[in-house]
Amino acid sequence: MNNSNNVDNYISDEIHEECGVFGIYDLDGNDVASSIYYGLFALQHRGQESCGIAVSDTNGPKGSVKSCKGMGLVNEVFTPESLEELKGNIGVGHVRYSTAGASNRENTQPLVLNYVKGTLGLAHNGNLINVLELKDQLAYTGAIFQTTIDSEVIAYLIARERLQTGSVEEAVGKAMLKLKGAYSLVIMSPRKLIGARDPFGFRPLCIGKRDNTYVLASESSALDAVDAEFVRDVLPGEVVMINKDGIHSDMSMAQPKISKCIFEYIYFARPDSCLDTVSVYNSRIMAGRILAQTYPVEADLVVGVPDSGNAAAMGYSFESGIQYATAFVKNSYVGRTFIKPKQSMRESSVRIKLNVLKDVVKGKRVIMIDDSIVRGTTCERIVRMLKNAGATEVHVRISSPPFLYPCYFGTDVPSDDQLIAHNNTVEQIRDMIGADSLGYLSVDRLSELIKGDTGYCDACFSGNYPIEPPKDDIRGEYER
Ligand code: SF4
C-alpha cells in the first residue's frame, strides 16, 4: 500500500474503504460519461487515490471502448474536454483507495480487457483472499498480468469462463465459484451491463433507473446524484444482467450465510445512503442512542467528530436529553495536491482539517462522539484540542466496538499490532487519549443498528471471520 499522497494518512489514523463502483446503460442511446462523472463524485468518499471511466456504444462496433483514468480526485482527473471525448451509452466508473496493489496509474480502474469474445470493462470494490492462488493458476496457463490488483484476476477468470459458456453473465457466475472474499462488481460487455455481489454481500451494490436508463452503484446516494430512482439492492450472491429487455437475475450463487460489513453503516457509507434497505443515518442515530443507554454521563454538550460522528452524537443527544452542539469546523477542501507538512508539524496538520469552536466548548463538560479509534493518535489530538479550547471535561464515546482484528474484505483496518485496542484495556486507552471517560459500542448490540438483522460481518471487532482468514496478512503481498 502506498499512501504517500493521501493527506488523510498523515493527519489522522482513519480507516479507508477500498473503492466505489458505478455502471450505467442508456437504452435510448444517449451518452453516459457525464452521469458516470457525477455518480463517481457522489462516491468520492469511498476512494480518493485514483478514478476512471470506460464507455462504449452498444450500437457501434463490438470491442470499441473509450476510457479515461488517472491519479487523483474525480474533479482533478476529468475535464469537460475529456468527458466530451467519452462517447457511448454504456459505461462503468470507479474510484479507488488501494488496500491491495500499489497506488499507481497501472492499477487504476475500470480495467478494460480485449479478448476473443469482445471487450470487458470491469470495476471492483472489495478484496479477494485467495488472489495469490488464483493468480498462480492463471499465470501457469499463460496469463500475463499488467497490474497488481486482484480485479485483473477477476477479469481474466470471467474472460476464460466466457470461452466455455453461452453468455457473459453465465461466465461471471462461473468465475464467482472460484473467487473467495469480498467483491461487488460492475461489468460492461459490448451489449450488456452486469452487476454482481459476492455471496456474503460484504460490499453494497444497488440498482437505479432514470427513464430508459439503468444504473448500478455502490451506494444509493450516487443514484440520487444522477436523478435515478432506487429500484432495489443487488442481493448477496446475485448476478444481474441488464440489456434492452430489462433486468435479469441469477441467484444460483446465493447462500444462507450473509455477512454485510457492519462498518459501512458506522463509518464508510454516506449518511444519505440506504444500504440493503437500512438508512445509514438512522443506524448512526441508533448507535448514539445505545451509547447514551450504556455509557450515560453528566455533561453540558454532546458533539460529534465530523462527519460520521455527527449523527451518532445526535442520537446520544436524543436519548440523553443533553444538548447537541457543533464543536468542530472541518475543512473539506484538503485534496491530494495539499503540501504535506513536515513530521515536526504534525500537530498543526490536524488543525488544518479540523478546528474547534472555542466559544461553544469553553467552560463546558463535553461528550465527544467519534466513529472509531484505530491507533489513537488522532483521538488524543482532538481531545487535547477540546481541552485547550477550554472544555472542563471530555467524555469520549465511540460508535463502534474496539478494533481488535484486521479486515481482509476490502478495507484497510490494519494488523492487530497497530490497533490500540488489541494491546490495551479500555482504561489504558482512556488514559492515553487524555479523556475523562471512554465508552465503546458493545458488539452484542450491533444488530440494532440494522433493525435486528443478523446477517452482518463484525470480524474486526469480534474475530468471528465469516470466511477463514489467511494465515498470514496477505494484504499488499500480491505485488511482491
Ligand atoms: S472485518 Fe470489519 S471492516 Fe471488514 S468487512 Fe467485516 S465488519 Fe467490515
From TrEMBL:
Catalytic reactions on record: 5-phospho-beta-D-ribosylamine + L-glutamate + diphosphate = 5-phospho-alpha-D-ribose 1-diphosphate + L-glutamine + H2O
Stretches assigned to the Glutamine amidotransferase type-2 domain: 19-245
Keyword vocabulary terms for this entry: 4Fe-4S, Glutamine amidotransferase, Glycosyltransferase, Iron, Iron-sulfur, Magnesium, Metal-binding, Purine biosynthesis, Transferase
Binding site for Mg(2+): S308, D370, D371
Gene Ontology terms, MF aspect: 4 iron, 4 sulfur cluster binding; amidophosphoribosyltransferase activity; magnesium ion binding
Free-text cofactor note: Binds 1 [4Fe-4S] cluster per subunit. Binds 1 Mg(2+) ion per subunit.
GO BP annotations listed: 'de novo' IMP biosynthetic process; purine nucleobase biosynthetic process
One Pfam family of this chain: GATase_7
Reported function: Catalyzes the formation of phosphoribosylamine from phosphoribosylpyrophosphate (PRPP) and glutamine.
Protein name, UniProt field: Amidophosphoribosyltransferase
